[in-house]
Design brief:
The protein is an alpha/beta fold. It is built from 13 helices and 17 strands. An 8-stranded parallel β-sheet has the order 8-7-6-5-4-3-11-9. A 5-stranded mixed β-sheet has the order 13-14-15-16-17, sandwiched between helices. Strands 1-2 form a two-stranded antiparallel sheet. One of its GO terms (molecular function) is 4-hydroxy-3-methylbut-2-enyl-diphosphate synthase activity (flavodoxin). Belongs to the IspG family.
């Protein structure tokens, strides 16, 4: 048979999936019996940060618990005043009493060296320190303050993230690099020099930390900027010039869809290229908004890219003139919410359930096909279609639902399927049983 125009018959297909992960050192962040490995081939770690006042130990512990239960594997808290530093140990104690072993990361800036020295119980209760070299003074003062923090990290055997930020870059380093660039026969534009300065600052400070005695396997680097293309360029450069694990995140990403889209665009490109070992989605929450949203977005980026699985995924059509009601929208929303809420229990009770796919479709056009492709799916009736909803389990049509109780019946079918396929005594490769 003749090949069609443009056919690739006989030509090997392109590989599907992200590039192999960039080889890095491995940093271990732990508390009690829990250890989180960053880099060294470990799965990409999801982390987040509280926005409570750390001096309110109860409120902070509650939010840390909420973030951890949502799936944040590390949680960062602000440690900016003596009053905040004094409460860190109490926050850790409250979390331990609640059996929440998520490691805490202390976020330090201008006075971290003083706070860690004055409050050794804070230094001990934290599992990792975040250091921003650009906010530690200038000249010898900066060097001394940085050395003091590294000495404390060595004393308590704590890993550190050396986090350079576009908005607080070392002014002396940047001025020197700008002067050198101006003297060059073909100077680069200022943005390019700033990007290079971020990378140079991160790497030179990491090397300085090693010289001060910090274990090379206790260092994570980040170079945060607020524009997508700048972030991609900076991290590509950084990944080529060092083998430290990298923390990805678009700083000041914004709120709502803008923050989600910008973060997704930047991080997806880098993750697809094998760059990045831990991620944080820095969303500005709407007034009264849920801080856990940034955890969900981080998980969904990794899961939709096929890098990790956190919770069963729901496929649902967008709706159009063929869909006659909002039933499928309401069912898709309720099923997705239900599945995510069940995961804290299901994660240990039903190993592998996080890889399950569920389809909730709104008419006959793509409904049956998408439902067959999913582990379990339902095709709801559209405009002018017979008022019935066929359910497909592992590609086979098993039952047709009718009436006002479709949502409740379908949720019950999902629960039964999870128990049969992933429950104790049943192999996870269950297929074809109803």
């Amino acid at each position: 048979m003749n090949d069609l125009p443009g056919s690739t018959s006989g030509i090997p297909s392109s590989p599907v999936g992200a590039s192999p992960r960039r080889p890095t050192r491995a940093a271990v962040v732990g508390w009690g019996g829990k250890s989180v490995r960053i880099g060294g081939g470990a799965p990409v770690v999801v982390q987040s940060m509280t926005n409570t006042d750390t001096t309110d130990a109860v409120a902070t512990a509650i939010q840390v618990k909420e973030l951890a239960m949502a799936g944040s594997e590390l949680v960062r808290i602000t440690v900016n005043t003596p009053e905040a530093a004094r409460e860190v140990a109490a926050i850790r104690e409250q979390l331990d009493r609640m059996n929440i072993s998520v490691p805490l990361v202390g976020d330090f800036h201008y006075n971290g060296h003083k706070l860690l020295t004055q409050f050794p119980e804070c230094a001990q209760a934290l599992s990792k320190y975040r250091i921003n070299p650009g906010n530690m003074g200038g000249g010898k003062k900066r060097d001394d303050n940085f050395a003091q923090m590294i000495e404390i990290a060595c004393r308590y055997d704590k890993p550190v993230r050396i986090g350079v930020n576009w908005g607080s870059l070392d002014h002396e380093l940047l001025a020197r690099m700008m002067d050198e660039n101006s003297a060059h026969p073909q100077p680069r534009d200022a943005q390019a020099v700033m990007r290079d300065a971020l990378v140079v600052s991160a790497i030179t400070n990491a090397q300085r930390a090693e010289e001060l005695g910090l274990n090379p396997n206790a260092i994570v680097l980040s170079c945060k900027v607020s524009h997508v293309q700048d972030l991609i360029t900076v991290y590509r450069d950084l990944s080529e010039r060092c083998d430290y694990p990298l923390h990805l995140g678009l700083t000041e990403a914004g709120m709502g869809s803008k923050g989600i889209v910008a973060s997704t665009a930047a991080l997806s490109v880098l993750l697809q290229q094998g760059i990045g070992d831990t991620i944080r989605i820095s969303l500005t929450p709407e007034p009264g908004g849920d801080r856990r949203r940034e955890v969900v977005v981080a998980q969904e980026i990794l899961q939709t890219m096929g890098l990790r699985a956190f919770t069963p995924m729901v496929v649902a059509c967008p709706g159009c003139g063929r869909t006659s009601s909002t039933v499928f929208q309401e069912l898709a929303d309720s099923i997705q919410t239900y599945l995510r809420e069940q995961m804290p229990v299901w994660k240990s009770r039903y190993p592998g359930v996080e890889t399950m796919n569920v389809a909730v479709m709104g008419c006959v056009v793509n409904g049956p096909g998408e439902s067959r492709h999913a582990d379990i799916g339902i095709s709801l009736p559209g405009t002018g279609e017979i008022p019935s909803a066929p359910v497909f389990v592992d590609g086979q049509r098993t039952v047709t639902l009718k009436g006002d109780g479709i949502a409740q019946e379908f949720q019950s079918i999902v629960e039964q399927y999870v128990e049969r396929r992933y429950g104790a005594g049943h192999p996870n490769n269950y297929k074809g049983r109803v």
